[in-house]
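BUG: 3D viewer hangs when loading the predicted structure for this chain

Environment: internal workstation, default settings.
Expected: structure renders.
Actual: progress bar stalls at 90%.

Input used:
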Amino acid sequence: MNTMSVGAMLGITVLLLPSLQGCKGEASGGGSSRQTATVVRRAIRAQIQATGVVRAMIGAEVKVGSRVSGKVERLFANIGAQVKKGDPIAKLEDADLRARLARTEAELASARAQLRLLRRGARAEEITEAEATLQQAEAELSLATTDAQRQTKLLGQELVSKEDADKAQRNLAVARGKVAATRSRVELLKQRYLPEEIALAEAKVKLGEAGVLEARANLSYASLVAPIDGVVAQVTTQEGETVAAGMNSPTFVTIIDLGKLEVAAYVDEVDIGRVVIGQRATFTVDSFPDVDFTGKVTAVYPRAVIQSNVVNYITTLSIDNSQGRLKPDMTATINIVLEERRDVLAVPEKALRREGGRRIVHLVNGEGSIARTVRVGRRGGGFIEIIEGLKKGDVVLINGSTPAQGKGKSS
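Structure tokens produced before the viewer hung:
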């Protein structure tokens, strides 16, 4: 099975194209029908031909969707419109989101006020009043102590009754208790709240701050903007439509950066071993059949793509689309340049024959021809390099012509 038949089966043709300089074929005159070609110096270029498709690079195609549910209030994007990063795309109704933000901001303000109150503690007036009460209680304690001592002394002298002495002791105990209670109140006012209570208030403030950030973020999601520069390629919603955000964000528009396109070439498994990163390539698309676009091999996918039992490997090509003529999903016919040899002797491949394990050509000798053994090199574009056996200007028969025995010996 030859190369062209394999390519027809696979949808990918391996073709070795000639350069601009080629051999000239000549047809002999007279009654005989024989075709000839002249040995010339030319360039031989080996190429792989494949089919492929223009596609967006990773990150060059972005689907813009909504992260919150709501009704589409405004839709600014139109198919084919040029957008810059940050341009508005759509806007959802956001009254509920604004109300939620206002509520969380109020809750935060309340939490912060409570924290300030705890950190400040009691008012100075309260502490002053408590300290004055303490001084009064201490004075009463001093008086009660003196009276109890005197009553005890008088009781020993039997000048007062035991009931009077017991009453003085009771008054002393009450005065002591009042002083202790008042002193505790002063200390409590000076350190009104526990460290744990202040820590709890601080945590509530942080929780309120997080709630405000979340509410602001949700409000920002109601306004959709372009994440990249590009062209609006698809619009999938309408004004007035209600969208529901779930596990997958509903897509509003698709934006493509036409400056970041590449070609995905499907190269047959027979040829993929000769493809390396950095090789030059040319390709055409049906929209511009007379324009040769250029590119370079940037990657060869290690995993094959199998379709209808045909094994291909995706090879990506970098391209220049500064003029914006190429669009995603355009079909491309690609030629990957493998090797180019310049200024070599060459003849059409059809002039080469095999006889007895030797490669020969039939060199035209007058009205006849003689077999000439040759050593060949690279093939390309239907031509083959002649390393030894011919010289420039020799005329050879094309395969299919009937060799006529000429004068001279086969060499």
